[in-house]
Design goal:
The structure is a homodimer. By secondary structure, chain A is mainly alpha-helical. Chain A contains 10 helices and no strands. In chain A, 73% of the residues lie in helices and 0% in strands.
Chain lengths: 190, 190
Amino acid sequence: MARWEPNARLRLVQAAIDLFGEQGYDNTTVSQLAERAGLTKTTFFRHFPDKREVLFAGQEEHARLLTAGVASAPATATPLEAVAAGLDALTSSFTPEQREFGPRLRSVVAGHAELRERSAFKELALAAALTDALHQRGVPDPIACLAADLGVRAFHTAFTEWIAPANDQPLPALAQHRLTELHRAATALS
Amino acid sequence: MARWEPNARLRLVQAAIDLFGEQGYDNTTVSQLAERAGLTKTTFFRHFPDKREVLFAGQEEHARLLTAGVASAPATATPLEAVAAGLDALTSSFTPEQREFGPRLRSVVAGHAELRERSAFKELALAAALTDALHQRGVPDPIACLAADLGVRAFHTAFTEWIAPANDQPLPALAQHRLTELHRAATALS
């Protein structure tokens, strides 16, 4: 099975979103996913441990991008400027395909308790990765936790706006706008 | 099966924490949980849909307490003062039993991916309930979301401190302290 499978991961993600939407998450098997993607089951398992994880394909890569972005911010950056750099690195990686299947992905996840829980875990995992990256820069708690929470919330809100049909703004700009708005809200709490 | 079962819920929670800790979550059945608690399987299913939910017994009650606390704050309260009232209502409900089994509960949840995901979902559900309660008071987003995030984070950190062996502070005081500290951190972001 050493043949070249261009975009196998993306094809599996698209097949999953299609099939889960058409026939339900519970009724879809790994074999069906592989077949729809034009791949073998063996190839499937080279990329994902099970059908659920296909929907959360991005978690590790997203954490890596956020962390690398935070690390790349200048030494003089404030915690929130470092988070902004992390968000930039993450949001710049999103593709038109991800925007296209975003609403269907959201609706599959929303329709199934197990997927909603997995999704909540992804959000906490991203916040933890961002917090760690801030600790690496010497930012202490609770400022690191707080700045990370703002970053994840900004990402989440911006992603929802980005996939809306009427939107014409790029994801990075939406995320920076939301982060600025949350920063202002944090100040307004006083 | 209409006999009186004093503290059936609490007995099931304690049985679950004991058995999951002794023999593992996967190896424990509902029948074993019921037996350890001195109850029948029928009684178990009157209280919980499955063995997993025993560990998250408090979610709805916690959301209800938070929400009622927020609603009870004076009309002049700031969003964060309303969150503080919610935290007071929630944290005052915790018992010495919950403190006693807290560390074992945490360790069972930490040891199992499915339970970590369910726990992350509980945290997001509490934040959503708190956000809704603030919306009811006319607090707009993103201030409502932000204040709710601070509240849930303060609760989580305070709970960790409260169950530490050396702690001698009550949970409500720890939670208010953490909320104040997060509020200061929010101001310091500017």
